[in-house]
């Protein structure tokens, strides 16, 4: 990850793996951008990559997922390898989005198999299994919602070992302003009795044992602006151990001081919570905006079904109902209070629209 960070600081751009451009190793394209090596994708061996490059060089660039599966020897590039390629972003140019490409893999493999059988009998795709018409290609892909940002970033972390096309903290940029005093790069040493609040992605947790046999930890936070170590001394470590996990977004309150050893600022933790706990503590409500045309029995039933799966929390739900002549806000009963998890917000945005779901704060 540090090498990727260094490349970014040098002003160079790294592109995700690309089955139409990439080679086994990292390469540089005509615009001077670094193309991620296909061989660096975890779970994709040398033989599948050779098969992909051979097909590309012998039969031309891949126009979409179905064309790719038809051209490549699927005995050498199996479904497990294809899934890794999707997760890594290597197929981003071969379909609408990663969720649709992943959901369409079985159909694309089956179509390629039928195409191969037809060609073996000299029929040459007489049934149009591998269409090239843009509209028909779009229709061939499974119609599924796009993955939330966290899912595709987790896929990159799993297959590439790092977040390449984004940062997990991006999706929280608006709301974290309600929790923190500033970015990590802006934090300055506080007085002895003063504290600052910061938020960041946990990159690593180093657990150590002191002379008394008690465990303590140094947690490395990253918020894109900087990285900073946070010390959790024994009492704080025992209290917050359950949330100190890599790849988790944490909101941390503590004293900031300059560390002579590292040559930078560090935080001595006094409080820590994950993003859901921070929402429950700071959010006034989850506001859902709908218009009167939307309020049909089937739509309301779908909304209730989503909320019911996350009921039992401490965050109130508010319905903002819009009508051409009037707007009304309704506060839902306490038994509809929810736990404001990322997945709930994602499902609600799929149901109501991106702009119709928001957390309001005190």
Quick recap:
The chain has eleven helices and 13 strands. It has about 350 residues and is of the alpha+beta class.
Low-confidence stretches: none
Q: Could you give the distance between the termini?
A: 37 Å
Neighbour order of strands in the largest sheet: 4-5-6-8-7
- Average pLDDT, rounded to a whole number, is 90
Helix percentage range: 25-40%
CATH class label of the largest domain: Mainly Alpha
Helical element count? 11
Domains counted in the coordinates: how many? 3
Structural class: alpha+beta
Q: Tell how many strands the DSSP assignment holds.
A: 13
Overall geometry comes to flat
CATH architecture of the largest domain: Orthogonal Bundle
CATH topology of the largest domain: DNA polymerase, domain 1
Residue fraction in strands: 15-25%
Biggest sheet record: 5 strands, mixed, barrel
Topology order in helix (H) and strand (E) letters = HEEEHHHHHHEEEHEEHEHEEEHE
What does this structure look like?
A hairpin with a 4-residue loop joins strand 5 and strand 6. The chain is of the alpha+beta class and 362 residues long. The strands form three sheets. The chain has a five-stranded mixed barrel with strand order 4-5-6-8-7. The protein is built from eleven helices and 13 strands. The mean pLDDT is 90. The chain has three domains: 159 residues, DNA polymerase, domain 1; 105 residues, OB fold (Dihydrolipoamide Acetyltransferase, E2P); 80 residues, no CATH class. The longest helix is centred in the N-terminal third of the chain and has 23 residues. It starts with a helix and ends with a strand. It is flat, with a radius of gyration of 25 Å. Helix 4 packs antiparallel against helix 5, helix 4 packs across helix 7 and helix 10 packs antiparallel against helix 11.
């Amino acid at each position: 990850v540090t090498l990727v960070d260094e490349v970014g600081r040098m002003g160079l751009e790294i592109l995700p793996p690309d089955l139409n451009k990439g080679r086994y190793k990292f390469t540089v394209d005509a615009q001077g951008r670094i193309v991620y090596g296909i061989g660096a994708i975890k779970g994709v061996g040398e033989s599948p990559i050779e098969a992909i490059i051979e097909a590309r060089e012998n039969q031309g660039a891949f126009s979409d997922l179905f064309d790719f599966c038809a051209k490549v020897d699927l005995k050498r590039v199996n479904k497990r390898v294809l899934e890794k390629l999707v997760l890594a972003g290597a197929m981003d140019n071969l379909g609408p989005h990663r969720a649709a490409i992943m959901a369409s893999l079985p159909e694309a493999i089956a179509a390629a198999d039928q195409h191969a059988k037809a060609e073996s009998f000299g029929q040459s795709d007489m049934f149009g299994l591998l269409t090239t018409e843009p509209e028909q290609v779009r229709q061939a892909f499974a119609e599924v919602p796009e993955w939330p940002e966290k899912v595709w970033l987790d896929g990159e972390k799993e297959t590439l070992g790092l977040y390449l096309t984004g940062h997990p903290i991006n999706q929280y940029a608006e709301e974290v302003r309600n929790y923190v005093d500033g970015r990590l790069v802006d934090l300055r040493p506080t007085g002895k009795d003063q504290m600052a609040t910061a938020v960041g992605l946990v990159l690593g947790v180093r657990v150590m044992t002191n002379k008394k046999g008690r465990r303590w930890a140094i947690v490395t936070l990253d918020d894109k602006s900087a990285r900073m170590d946070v010390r959790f001394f024994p009492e704080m470590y025992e209290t917050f151990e359950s949330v100190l996990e890599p790849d988790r977004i944490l909101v941390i309150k503590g004293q900031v001081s300059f560390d002579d050893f590292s040559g930078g600022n560090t935080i001595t933790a006094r409080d820590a919570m994950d993003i859901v706990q921070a929402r429950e503590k700071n959010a006034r409500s989850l506001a859902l905006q709908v218009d009167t045309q939307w309020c049909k029995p089937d739509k309301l039933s779908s909304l209730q079904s989503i909320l019911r799966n996350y009921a039992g929390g401490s965050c109130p739900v508010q319905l903002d109902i819009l009508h051409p002549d009037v707007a009304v806000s309704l506060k839902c009963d306490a038994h509809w209070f929810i736990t404001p998890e990322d997945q709930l917000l994602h499902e609600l945005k799929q149901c109501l629209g991106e702009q119709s779901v928001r957390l309001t704060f005190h």
